[in-house]
Amino acid sequence: MDNLTRTTVEIFGRRFELRATESGERLQELAGYVDRRMRELADVSPHVDTAKLAVLTALNIADELFREQETEPGTRTERIRHKVEGLITRLDEVLGPSP
Fold it and tell me: What is the pTM of this model?
């Protein structure tokens, strides 16, 4: 475990110093995702304490992971293709016709 990276991340207003084999950028990306998900839950349940909010967030993320793992590979690929096509369509709408 000599290749550990130390990174400080912020999740829901709290700073955490982490050590991991992942890059600092990857840890920041993951922490940003968890932070966004906690804030989304806090918006709909503003009176829930932080510990409970963290557990609910963890359960929601675990549910996403399990559902993704249960999806058939062909279905997963089709879903991703559909999302990419939708994003391309939106980009075309925003950027307008190319010269």
Answer: 0.69
